[in-house]
Structure formats: structure tokens, C-alpha cells
Amino acid sequence: MDPLLISIAFLLGFLVRQVGLPPLVGFLAAGFVLNGLGFEGGEMLETMADLGVTLLLFSIGLKLDLKSLAKPEVWAGASIHMATTIVVFGLGVFGLGMAGLPFFTDLNLPLAILVAFALSFSSTVFAVKILEEKGEMGAMHGRVSIGILIMQDIYAVLFLTFSLGKLPSAWALLVPVALFVLKPVLYRLMTRSGHGELLLLFGLFAALVAGAGGFELVGLKADLGALIIGVLLAGHEKSSELAKTLMGFKDLLLVGFFLTIGLAGVPTMAAIGVAALLVAVTPLKVALFYLLLTRFKLRARSSLLSSLSLANYSEFGLIVAAVGASQGWLGSEWLVIIALALSATFIIASPLNTAADALYVRYRQKLCRFETDTRHPDDQPIDPSGATIGVLGMGRIGTMAYDFLREKYGETVIGVDFDNQTVSEHADAGRRVVFGDPTDPDFWARVIRPETEARMVLLTMSQHQANLAAARHLGEVGFPGRITAIAEFDDQIEELREAGAHAAFNVYNEAGLGFAEHACEVLEGHYKTRATS
Fold it and tell me: Looking at residues 100-123, what average pLDDT do you find?
């Protein structure tokens, strides 16, 4: 790979990271800089980008609960939003053509609808990256956003299938049977692949060969195959481990995706003007998402955060435009226009998502006016009565801490997790665990009351950003007890203390100390046994 490409991508990604923005903003900027320097991405970068998107969809599948797609806020929300956007934006684009605006004059009503369809998608890549960085993939708004994006991806696949005039082969009818037969084989292979590089290779085989390659073989979309194979493996006990194993590799490949957007073409002033116009109407997309989600009984915060994560244009818009250009329906300049609009919305949406909670707190009263009188089933009030110790994040570490504290202090311990399945599993095991999102400022306003006899909160969520957000919110509501947290790195310990934690511990150091203590007990027991024998 060209050293110039690596250097500029790293430098700009590093610089934007220092000002609190996601590195992907720097990668987008790097694409435009490289474009200005005359750099051409070439086939290798395109392949890298395609592989990144394919692995992203596979990773989503590994974490996807199919039941979530059946929820009205997901399938109906995505469908109504897309249909409304196509109608409103389509008529707007057609009207601009009638008014004689450059690039719009050649668009008749069907082509205006096609452009509106391209603009109706939200970026899966962007939303997943933002939610992962904030540790909110499992939160309610994260699950809703991912579900809506999956529905949009399904619509995109249907469009690509029929628009290209390339219908699946007759063998595609056997895909359900093939998946049924393949599932136990893949499960067996995954179990026997261990925990190292072989598990990584298994993930690549499952996503790129069994999924993408298998679906392409019968005339179906490769990305859809990767997604479905991911869903197929989601029930395996090692699915989370596989997702983590693939994360670094996937993120590296996605750098290529962001670079290719900036390298899409050289924009003219007219194209920049049209792109700016498209960016100016994105608040309408956000407002429509917010209105729809509140109608489906989501709280104002959940609706706002979902809407902001969906607030941009999508890589699928580029794909739709590329199909239109290849079929002679659209001019190639629309590729550049949509690439510019996509990049701009990425750059604008990044800080908005970072400041989402601050925006919600600032405009809470106005936003809450749109809430319905009834609550969503997954968003019911929490009753922490009698609890004095809270464990936030009931993963492996949180569960061990909960069990130890309950044995020591009795039933005054309560666990909190934002994954309904995790909550149900703990309830079946006899633990007192409730559904809640500790990164939500409203959660603490509902839980911490003047009469609360809180003694301690343990922040054991797997994402550092989630623990940071919870620590800050606890300080804001005047939590009277002690706050302790876990961290993976020493610099994170200092961040947690600055956010209000009274103590933070490196999980690896603590695990090492615990292991050493147990080893000493074994050693002492051995010598005592020898001494008495």
C-alpha cells in the first residue's frame, strides 16, 4: 500500500481524534486530500473497502436478534420513513428540475424518485462505528437503530436485485435448505477453532466464502449472504468472541471504505452547491425519525439518539447512484454529488452524536412534549427499592461482583443491564437484575431519589465510554455513595477518576493479583499437606 496513503490517513485520523471526533472523520478528510494530490485509489483500495463493508454486515449479524426486526418501531418505522422520504424528496427534486436548477433539469419524475430513494438510506457503517465507540450497541436506541438499518439494507438488496435485471438463479430456492444443513457444520467448526488466529480465519471463511461467495454463486447479493451467515452463528456461545476477534481487522478494512468516498471524484462548484442543498434538508430526515419513534412509544432520549445515529446519507446511496449511472439513467456527476453530501453529513453527524446527551439535557422539556402517555414495553419504570449497592453491566465481571456482594451483603444488591436477554438469563438464575441504560441521564433521575440509601455503584460495563458516561451522570444527580469502575488501560483509570469515580481498577492487574493469591493458597496447602504426612 502507498506510504503516502497510510501517512495522510493516520495523520488526519490522529488529529481529529485529539479534538474529540471519531477518527472516521479524519479518514474522510484524508480521501479528499489524496484526491486533491492526484492520488487514485485503485482496485486494491476498492477491494479493501468492499471487504470491510462485508465484514461489518457479518459482525452485525453475529449480534442481531431476529426478534428485534419484528418490532413495530423497526419494520414499520423503517418502512414509513423510507416511503415518506421518497415521496417528499422525490417531489422536491422534481420541482427543482422544473425550476431549472443545474443537474436537476434532466430528471423526470421516475428519475427524481430514484435520487430520492438513494437519499432515503442511512449509513450502516457510520451508525455502527458511532454506537461501538460510545458502547451503546446493546442500548435500546442502539438496537432500534441497527434494526432500522437492517430493514433498509434489505430494501437495498431488493432494489439491486431487480434494477440490474439479474434475477437469482433457480438454485437460490435451495438457500434455506442449504443454511439448515450448513448450520451444524459451521457450529462444529467454530467450536473446534479455538481462540486464536484459527478463529479469525474461521470468521473470514464464514463471512467471505460461506456467506458472500455462496450467495453470489446463486445470484444473490454478497453482503446479504454475509449478514445471514452472521445471524446463523449468532446463537453460538463463541459469537461474541468471534465479533471481538474480527473487530480490529474489520476496522482496518473500513478505513479503505472511508478513503474511497473522498476519492470518488473531483467536485465542481455547481456539484458542491447541490451537495450543500442535499445536506441542508437532512434535518427533515432526523425530525421524521424522531416523530415516528416517539409515536411508537419510545422515550424522547431514545428517539433522539436513534434519530441522530441515522442522520446521514448512506453508502447505499452511492451504490444506487452507481447503478443508475451504469444503466444510463443518471449522469456520473450524481456520484460525486452524493459522495460529497455523504461525506458532509458524516462530518456534521459525528460531533452531534458525541454531544447527543448534552443536547438532550439542554432541550429535554421541548423534546419530551412529543412522548406518548404510555411507555414502550422495554422502557418501563425501574423499582430499586431496598437496594443499596448497584452493579451496572452484568457481563462476566459484573456477574462475579454481584454474586460476591450478594453473599456478603444480602438482597440489598441489584444488577442493571441494557440487554433484555441478559436480564432474562439472570432472572432465571435467581439474581435481581433489571433492564436499564446507565448512560441515560433520565435513568438516574428515576432511580436516585432523596430517600435513596445508596452506598456504592460498581461500573462494570464492557465499554469504557459507557462507564465514563455513567460516572458523569451519577455526579450530576448528586449520587451520595461511592463510585467504583473497571478499566482495561491505566490511562482510562485517570479518565474515570476525573469523571467522578472514587476508585478505578485495571481488570487485568486485579485478575493477576487474584490469580497470585489463589496460587499462594494452593502452594501453602501443598506444604501443609507434606508437613502432616
Answer: 90
Give me the pLDDT at residue 526, please.
56
Query: What's the CA gap between 295 and 402, in Å, rounded?
Result: 37
Residues present in the chain in total: 533
Is 137 in contact with 129 (CB distance < 8 Å)? Answer: no
Average pLDDT on 204-224 reads 88
Q: Report H helices in 135-238.
A: 140-163, 175-191, 197-204, 214-217, 222-233
Amino acid code (one letter) for 151: M
- Indicate whether 256 pLDDT > 70: yes
Q: Identify the band that residue 161 occupies on the pLDDT scale cut at 50, 70 and 90.
A: low
Task: Tell me the three cell numbers of residue 177.
Answer: 435448505
Give the three cell numbers for residue 412. Answer: 440489598
Cα torsion for 203, 136, 57, 248, to the nearest 10°?
-40
pLDDT at 465: 82
Answer whether 31's CB lies under 8 Å from 254's CB: no
| Distance of alpha carbon 9 from alpha carbon 24, whole angstroms | 9
CA distance 434 to 437: 10
CB atoms within 10 A of CB 88: 16
Bridge partners, 390 (sequence order): 414, 457
Q: What is the mean pLDDT of the chain?
A: 84
Query: Which residue matches cell numbers 437460490?
Result: 172
Pairing state between β 433-435 and 456-459: unpaired
